[in-house]
Amino acid sequence: xxxxxxxxxxxxxxxxxxxxxxxxxxxxxxxxxxxxxxxxxxxxxxxxxxxxxxxxxxxxxxxxxxxxxxxxxxxxxxxxxxxxxxxxxxxxxxxxxxxxxxxxxxxxxxxxxxxxxxxxxxxxxxxxxxxxxxxxxxxxxxxxxxxxxxxxxxxxxxxxxxxxxxxxxxxxxxxxxxxxxxxxxxxxxxxxxxxxxxxxxxxxxxxxxxxxxxxxxxxxxxxxxxxxxxxxxxxxxxxxxxxxxxxxxxxxxxxxxxxxxxxxxxxxxxxxxxxxxxxxxxxxxxxxxxxxxxxxxxxxxxxxxxxxxxx
Length: 311
Prior knowledge:
Elements: E1 2-4, E2 18-21, H1 29-45, E3 49-55, H2 58-62, H3 74-83, E4 88-93, H4 96-99, H5 103-114, E5 119-123, E6 127-128, E7 134-135, H6 136-146, E8 149-153, E9 157-158, E10 161-162, H7 165-173, H8 177-184, E11 189-193, H9 200-204, E12 209-212, E13 222-230, E14 237-246, E15 257-262, E16 273-284, H10 291-309
Parallel strand pairs: 1-4, 2-3, 2-5, 3-4, 5-8
Antiparallel strand pairs: 6-7, 9-10, 11-16, 12-15, 13-14, 13-16, 14-15
């Protein structure tokens, strides 16, 4: 998958795709339906399937101090989109200049002139341009005038629940990864680089990988049964394990992170990139009075996770 980050300086070979436009946070079932429609249009037109999205997320640009809300970082989103067969990811840098384009100017300067898109697919609640004043119907009208097709996709429901990033965040906060998976169409994953921690896990007999969750909407703090993909290097592959998300109150820590104990694994993963899928919530984060009590609980957590995962 090619990633293009500038709409003003684009190679001729990177123009002319059919794209879905949006933030695609989580790449949930609603997003997947939009991407499927895009792929059909791309096939009909004989052009690549693409996604037009923005980094940073516009909400982060306008309110940098806002509470973390993202379901996935840019790396995780790109990996998920590539698995779905997206050939072109137009990941435009969202900055002051782009934020000031009104809807019509955005359509002309970015979609028509800059990227030369052949077709655009958006959800029926799509808004764009300065002040989010442009609507999906406006985009359809601009497309007729500027020479690109537009498809408006209906909102999607799963299990009687309207699928949205907001509802997914609510389910994550409630510690319900199974509900999240229903709306995503896949397990919720946290991806990133393994960083050095305090190495307390080794002393307890549970060596863990540490990953930052900075900038992400935090799931309910606690312990989860997980599936782990090591995305490259000598240990690349699929594993199972148990993970803790939280601030480690037993040790007086206050920065939330993700610590994962991978079952039956031996090796150095520092610097490796992992994708950790939340399968089931086991319990809330607890503060223990002693290390022995903590180890006993970790033994129980691991046994329960192995049972759930068939490991």
